[in-house]
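Input.
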Amino acid sequence: MKILVLIDGSKWSHKAALHAIELAKRKNAEVVLFSVLDIAEARALAFNFCAQSGICDRVKDYEGRIWGDMRKSTQQELTAILSRYTGEKVRCSSKIMEGRIRDEVLREANSGEYGLVVMGAFGRSGKTRISALLEQIGGAVRPPLLVVR
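Output.
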């Protein structure tokens, strides 16, 4: 069995990864850590910076820097989680995709490779309401979906 774990940089996705470790050990399963870089998020951050600083002629430059920082931060996060899995002797790999988060998550989750999808109940925003991604994909993910709180 393969378990897909959605990683978004939140403490909730880290909790989901920890639960997936325990499940993988019990079921002798392989884990795939999955993260999506959304260019719309980089554009929004660059636009907000531009609007606040008044330096809008360089918005593309800021977008490129933010995109690079997002990629580097995501890779570092996945590497840290992977090292934890290695210490637990669980087979684990990672994937980073670029695109719309909802579309990429559904494409991967519904690929037929996974017996379980694990995600955190809340996202990076830290809001007390349910994850926006969960609202978007909850009914569309074909494998069982474990939401960790």
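The radius of gyration is 16 Å.
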